[in-house]
Amino acid sequence: xxxxxxxxxxxxxxxxxxxxxxxxxxxxxxxxxxxxxxxxxxxxxxxxxxxxxxxxxxxxxxxxxxxxxxxxxxxxxxxxxxxxxxxxxxxxxxxxxxxxxxxxxxxxxxxxxxxxxxxxxxxxxxxxxxxxxxxxxxxxxxxxxxxxxxxxxxxxxxxxxxxxxxxxxxxxxxxxxxxxxxxxxxxxxxxxxxxxxxxxxxxxxxxxxxxxxxxxxxxxxxxxxxxxxxxxxxxxxxxxxxxxxxxxxxxxxxxxxxxxxxxxxxxxxxxxxxxxxxxxxxxxxxxxxxxxxxxxxxxx
Length: 300
What we know:
This protein is 42% helix and 14% strand. It is of the alpha/beta class. The protein folds into 2 domains: 3-15 and 199-269, Helicase, Ruva Protein, domain 3 (Orthogonal Bundle); 46-195 and 284-292, 3-Layer(aba) Sandwich (Rossmann fold). Mean pLDDT is 86; it is low at 281-300.
């Protein structure tokens, strides 16, 4: 049975509104997401050596990256790495692979680094900037982060030849702020911490997703949306999961509208496992964590 044969036709949707696949077309531009995206664009336009974006699991970081990729012009060469791991030399191979640069994996580290440097110089001469996006960067070792930091020293006169965007979970911010990461921190020209949605944003987010697939946006009552916020802490991925289960339950009961009782039934049955979602210490309507530097410090 096709997934669309479940509740999609019953509610008149074109497709499922709450899938977990990062899709920039479904992105709800909350104030938080607009600011985070502005930081990403600022990082590229200002030739920032390193841009840092952090947020909880499911906060929408990867979706923002996908949205950014869809807007990049031909004058920017993008490399995207997800969940890179490994020691010295292996990360360099990840980078070459992401940038579609041919290399011999049996060559020495010095020769491999020279291949990357030659590629960066060629792109610079052709008038193209190179941007490397590392998603789930909290999985990198300190050695890996230091190796990335050293890449920002590759330059032509005053221009950085490769820009880095580090995207990861909150612990990434803690790692880069550690005393032994001081040189890396000095190269971060802009950073933003993406928080969860607040109680006012969650209903707007749900209505947006419903309308994107042809729904009215009124399939969930206000009380249901409040229950969903309380159970998910406003984390978009968890909101999607709980809304999906609620639609399934309502469809099974031939109910055109999802109310608070339906959400409570989903939670009571234990099919939704995200009820212990972490909450941010500060409300999202306060001033977000945004940091700018005029330019990154240069290390030897």
